[in-house]
Write a structure and sequence with these properties.
3-stranded antiparallel β-sheet; about 55% helix; globular; 5 strands; mainly alpha; two-stranded antiparallel sheet
């Protein structure tokens, strides 16, 4: 047989694979660049007063965990006397500054270390946040590729994440709390992507328990060598890809603690061939960074649970009674869930308000639309058609395209991907809903970012018809969500949030 004839189909297949990868990389880079441009335009002044992690990074560079507070009118240092969310360990006295610890997990400060080392307190946290947000769009694009959807579905769902959720607002603000979300979600997206790319059967309808059963399905699907898979499953107790995914998850938790509750995803989805092997491999990767966080907390506070959270809770619960906090309850209390679930799902902007809404009532009420005959408009500060409220805007309104996840249950309700994603989302959301605060002041609902990496695969499945083509309703919800978030981000900047 002519060698050229025998190699022809293989050469054609290789060329097709190469072309597909080139298109994927090209589209991904365009999405990242487009997101960076939009996020940059959304925060042109880079004004950011909340730079707790810059101070924390500076402290690390000086070999300590604490930083001086309250700093005001001190030569060579920016003011930080207005900071919230700090835990005092030494009160100021005799003209000397006090010392405080930051209760938040330290990974965002570690990310800032090289920038603070170069630029000191002038490090541009806003630009760094924009860059992290744009990279997150790229990570979402890469992660969704593990599901092998059609190109238009993959583009649409990536755009939903970039422009149709509160990720846009997080990028446009980049303050302390949002920087933590950006770092954590970037890592979680990579973790989910690793699991999807090493689990070609996550969307099958039967949960898998035993290595041999999964190997048989791999053979039937034409994926891999059954004998090799059996040898790997028996000779090696760990799966390398799942260890990596666990490491990424553990690192994400050192930026945002609720990410530890995403563990069910890694039990159901990923490499390894069985739930036991996936679980063990994930734990081997995730435990070291989480243990390092607990050790850091113990060494700096004498407790594995940071006392700064309860300290701040008591301050806010006693000072912000208008927000419904109860100082007799705990920081995490299930009694907060009924109220907070309304914020998460259905909180709406103020429609045709007569007064500028303010949940705490600071200052004198601002009367709107005082001139007779004035017509309300979308962005008129004196007579707006609607205004976002500072306690947040529910997901049904601020991120409508996420509702596509519900369609995934109709198609693949018993798949391991569906079960893992649902469990991760529900557990993370429940933990956050039991938290006394839901992220005031904000556009959208920022706590949704904690489970966004595990919700997006369901959105992707729901956005596609059974034949793989995109649903028209997905495009409608993408357009609607983009317009809503453009309005919300613009108003957030107008209101100085």
């Amino acid at each position: 047989m002519d060698a050229s004839i025998a190699e022809g189909p293989l050469t054609a297949r290789s060329s097709s694979i190469f072309a597909g990868r080139a298109i994927s990389i090209g589209v991904g880079l365009l999405l990242v660049f487009g997101a960076w441009v939009i996020y940059t335009l959304s925060n042109p002044q880079h004004t950011n007063f909340y730079t707790h992690f810059v101070w924390q990074a500076d402290a690390f560079l000086h070999g300590r965990a604490w930083f001086p507070y309250p700093v005001k009118d001190v030569a060579g240092l920016p003011d930080n006397n207005y900071f919230q969310d700090v835990f005092p360990i030494l009160e100021p006295k005799d003209g000397e500054l006090g010392r405080v610890l930051l209760p938040f997990p330290p990974l965002p400060a570690i990310v800032l270390l090289p920038f603070v080392a170069l630029f000191g307190f002038k490090a541009d946290q806003a630009s760094i946040a924009i860059g992290l947000a744009a990279l997150g769009v790229g990570a979402a694009w890469w992660m969704l590729g593990g599901l092998r959807p059609r190109l238009v579905v993959r583009i649409a769902v990536t755009a939903v994440f970039a422009l149709g959720t509160t990720w846009w607002w997080a990028a446009a603000v980049g303050s302390t709390w949002y920087l933590a979300h950006l770092v954590a979600v970037d890592l979680a997206l990579l973790a989910v992507g690793v699991t999807l790319r090493h689990d070609p059967l996550a969307l099958t309808e039967t949960p898998l328990d035993e290595d041999d059963r999964e190997v048989d399905r791999l053979d039937a699907a034409g994926v891999g060598d059954g004998l090799l898979e059996r040898l790997r499953a028996t000779a090696f107790p760990l799966d390398g890809s799942q260890v990596l995914a666990g490491l990424l998850l553990g690192l994400a938790a050192t930026a945002r603690l609720p990410l530890v509750f995403a563990a069910p995803w890694f039990i159901f989805v990923g490499g390894g061939g069985s739930r036991l092997r996936r679980t063990l491999s994930t734990a081997v990767g995730a435990v070291p960074p989480v243990a390092a966080l607990l050790l850091y907390t113990y060494l700096t506070t004498g407790s594995v649970m940071h006392p700064g959270y309860d300290y701040q809770y008591q301050r806010e619960a006693n000072g912000y009674s208008a927000l419904g906090y109860n100082p007799k309850w705990s920081v995490e209390d299930v009694r907060y869930i009924p109220h907070n679930i309304g914020i998460m799902l259905t909180a709406l902007p103020a429609i045709a308000p007569d007064l500028k809404p303010n949940s705490l009532g600071f200052g004198d009420p601002v009367q709107l639309c005082t001139d007779p005959g004035t017509q309300r408009s979308l962005f008129d500060q004196k007579c707006p058609l609607a205004l976002p409220i500072d306690i947040g805007t529910g997901l049904v309104f601020s991120a409508p395209a996420l509702l596509l996840a519900l369609l995934a249950f109709r198609r693949r309700w018993f798949a391991r991907l569906t079960l893992g994603a649902t469990a991760a989302v529900i557990i993370i959301a429940t933990f956050n809903l039991a938290h006394f605060s839901q992220g005031w002041v904000q556009w959208g609902y920022r706590f949704s970012l904690d489970y966004m990496p595990f919700l997006l695969p369901l959105v992707s499945v729901g956005a596609a018809r059974p034949d793989g083509r995109i649903r028209w309703v997905a495009l409608v919800l993408l357009g609607l969500g983009t317009g809503i978030n453009l309005w919300g981000v613009a108003w957030g900047k107008i209101l100085g949030w």
